[in-house]
Model the fold of this input.
Amino acid sequence: MSDQGILAAIAGQEARWRAYDWRLIPGVPRAPLMNMALDEVLTLRVGSGERPPTIRIWGWSERCVVLGRFQSVKNEVDEAAARAHGVQLVRRISGGGAMFIEPEGAITYSIYAPEAMVWGMNFPESYAFFDAWVVEALRGLGVDARYGPLNDITSAGGKIGGAAQARRGGAVLHHTTMAYQMNVPLMLAVLRIGKEKLSDKGITSAEKRVGPLRQQTDLSRAAIIDLLVGAFRATYGLAEDIVTAAELAEAERLVQSRFGTREWIYFLP
Amino acid sequence: MHGEYKTPGGKLVRVDLEVRDDVLRDIVVSGDFFLYPEEALADITGSLDGLPVALSDDEIATRVAAAIPAGTEWLGSSPRALAIAVGRALRLEPEAGS
Done:
């Protein structure tokens, strides 16, 4: 389907957002492994109805590389360089590409929604649907943002970020990471970005691909997050919430049993 | 051996493999694609195990496609893309642009 076809298919679907009472979990710094585990826990709890549909802003306590579900460690990461620079390696539950994260360099959020919310949509349409509000909100900040299939948020100045989805237990996890500012030399030292990956982009360097928000606005990272959240709240409503003690405990157990294990992180060596 | 292929406008699929007794072994399929359900990766990887090296890309693509359970969504890549990556690994072709 063409880009225009996808956007036409999701036009007029905003009412689907208003059908739910949305909760907001504000960003507090968390260990990368806890961020991975919380996505699993909160997705399942929204799927089971124990938790209302929720948006979680991520905070990061340290540098890390977040591998996609199906990426191999050695093909994506220079592990010696990662160790040397104190960059932790974690694997998320969704597909897509590796992200190099520094705590103040990225804006990440997760949307946990009942699968019914995207009923009748194919996967490409559901990506565009979940990204539409943030594209609109970024435009409201003066950033020339657009949706780029399948999972990009892009702009004339380069790619701003990307989304990924996982589905389980009757819920959709749609999480998005946007670059605020980038330490390109460190990113290139840690991530292996081959020429094949850029082969259809008409460009030869990863650096030229990206357009971090800091280059496109004078706003601070915190101000951008506040404005994005405010735009969502104004349009669809949003009530403040927290991760419950039970959810935190469950996520901590999952860090021990799954996300922090060698079997998970090196699922594809 | 290692081969990769980026679907234009889509995602990268990589394959690492060995050839023993003229068949493919020790297969690892990876990439930045999306796959629903996640467990289908084992079906895709398993479909390559034991295939004769003499198969054409078309024949490889057909075997991979046949192994993917109905209802699976593979976004950004495809059996055809994986077959090209396998072909590149076997023929030691360089990746695009190098």
About this structure: The radius of gyration of chain A is 18 Å. Chain A touches chain B at residues 68-72, 75, 93-98, 123-124, 149-151, 164-167, 194-200, 204, 268-269 (CB under 8 Å). The mean pLDDT of chain A is 93.
